[in-house]
Amino acid sequence: MTINWTRAAFVVLLAATAALYLWGLGESGWANSFYSAAVQAGSESWKAFFFGSSDASNAITVDKTPLSLWPMALSVKVFGLSSWSILVPQAIEGVATVALVHHLVRRTTGSAVAGLVAGAVLALTPVAVLMFRFNNPDALLVLLLTAAAGATLEAIERPGRAVRWLVLAGALVGLAFLTKMLQAFLVLPAVALVYLLCARVGFGRRIAHLLAALAAVVASAGWWLAIVSLWPAASRPYIGGSQHNSILELTLGYNGFGRLNGNETGSVGGGGPGGGGMWGATGIGRLFDGEIGGQVAWLLPAALVLGLAGLWSGWANRRLRAALLLWSLTLVSTWLTFSFMAGIFHAYYTVALAPSIGALVGIGGWALWQNRASLLARLALAATTAGTAMLAFVVLDRSADFVPWLRYAVVLAGFAGAALLLGMPSLPRRFATLALATALLAGLAGPAAYAVQTAGTPHTGSIPTAGPTVTSGFGPGGGFRAGPPNGGLPNGGLPNGGPPPGMQPAGLRRPAGNAGSAGGLLDGSTSSTAIDELLTENAGDYTWVAAAVGSNVASGYQLATEEPVMAIGGFNGSDPSPTLARFQEYVAAGKIHWFIGGGGGMGGGMGPGGGTSSAIASWVAATFTATTVDGITLYDLSGGVS
């Protein structure tokens, strides 16, 4: 029997990726309980499913469009509520993304080895391991944008069916918008420019095809926006993250231009023009700083160098040229946006760079390898190998207690590989394979170690990070201690050394035994048996078994009881929903049983809407009698207003 080694290697790649992404997945519990609660709600109510509501009674939505929640909610409908049913869809999306990058690179180069290298680079990028094991929207976003890149390349290669493939690319970008809003559009300049430059049809048809693709973007993204905008506000949930119950405001403001200029209502420590505030100083070196470098920077310079050198080496190859231009422009536009955006920025956003990095390393490295007889090609390969090893040493040195010998081994392998690459013409032919293997070892050993550590560490909260704790960095924003893997903020807290009034940073308080945890701004609450019994008592008599300020405070109790818990003010309590008058109406009508205080539950959020949640909390405290259960303050609202 003849073994197809390339197919077998591909199967091994996917099996190893699946093992890495599924290993100990349930240890992360609810992961980001903010989204897990919405998934639970969507599994109980089709209306909550459609809008992305935080609870099945549809008080308020999450602060994103809901497409990423839908696969998880369907999984929970089929398999029941559990950590695995919520997180496995992301792992499947990750394996699919690796398979797609492998296919696209192999098709571009005709080389199975190039495809395997590209797939391995993506699979082992630490932030990819993190996000394909987590329930933030980024996993589905990356898969859809990678598929859009593939459809664009097909449109360039198949002139007879170009418009169909380009329309598909536009539709996929539109679906990516429904996953994470305007971030999806970062790929559009690259798609449009590469198609204009490389398509194999006349210029007029290229323009027409791009207009058709734009229409597909608008249609695939706009149908949901149109329904939400036209739906009577009184019969749908409040649009979380907005100050005026507007999906367009959320799209263009908090999740749109506000991310670029820092003018975001409800942002913790927002930066404003010219800087990133608590999200780190902006600048071209931002992605190499102490927190972010270990997430994605390992092969970032190598990808750019190999992409440019590959263009120089293989410019005459139309297919190669189009692919390298598309991946390079996508990488650069995303890199620059993340580097200079002054609003909310988290390290895990950089997973969007991982497919481009993998593709450019695979394609660009292959192009130079094919021309290794050229001294310039060998110099580019050798310089990239040595430079990547030195960058790995810097990143690994920030976590000096983590596999302390590895950084020295990587440097030795990098310089040995560079020497072998330079000296290939004068060495026996078998040394070419050794040179390639040594270069790959030097480039992948560091991220692979971080990837395994990430997969072996539970991650919870709203701001997870990959890899071990680091202590320093270089470039803008360097020099601080990165947040813990459970989602803490940089510097271990909030601006000026403490939380905003009534808010609690992630991880500040953990439950002991059966005690409950109030949760806080970034970390979900933890219920207890006694609290569960109180909340579920006569649950069918109430629209919401409880209410609490902030989605993360509400989420843990909702997930524990699988009953609706109203998140007053949305994610951080800053949304003006419900108003005090409306909340009082709900209480008078007997729709809410308990009010949960503590953590973020009694202080109100940031921004104009935070006054609303503070007013509700103050009114409850002044009107009803407090009861403490397992360290959590509860108010029984079922007796109405006295």
Largest sheet: 5 strands, mixed
C-alpha Rg (nearest Å): 25 Å
Main-sheet strand order equals: 2-1-3-5-4
Count of β-strands: 5
Kindly, what is the distance between the CA atoms of the first and last residues, rounded to a whole number of angstroms?
84 Å
Class by SSE composition? mainly alpha
Runs with pLDDT <50, length 5+?
Answer: 268-276, 473-513, 599-608
The number of distinct helices, counting runs of at least 4 residues, comes to 23
Strand/helix succession: HHHHHHHHHHHHHHHHHHHHEHEHEHEE
Q: Helical percent range?
A: 40-55%
Strand proportion, as a percent range, falls in: under 5%
**Multimeric status of the protein:** single chain
Average pLDDT taken over every residue = 88
Question: What does this entry show, briefly?
Answer:
With 642 residues, this protein is mainly alpha-helical. 55% of the residues lie in helices and 4% in strands. The longest helix has 28 residues.
